[in-house]
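Intended use. Records like the one below are meant for learning the mapping from a protein sequence to its folded structure. Do not use them to infer anything beyond what is encoded.
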Amino acid sequence: MGLTCSLPNFAVGSTGVRGCRQYLPGGQNPSSEHVIFQRGQSYFQVSIIYSGGMGAQQNQQYVFNQILLNFMFLP
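Structure written out for the chain above:
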């Protein structure tokens, strides 16, 4: 079973690294979003689990997007 990407080929910050962005809607579990990417031989995952109502989720999603847009690897 492979990974289903909601947004394949997603750019992670200004790193030049491409990843898979997956959104899992709420239900029995809270909704969440995951970004999985590879650099060299290492794999990384950045995730957020949303809590609160729609307004809180929009604020959390904004912060998550800012983290992803400003992500960079240090030398």
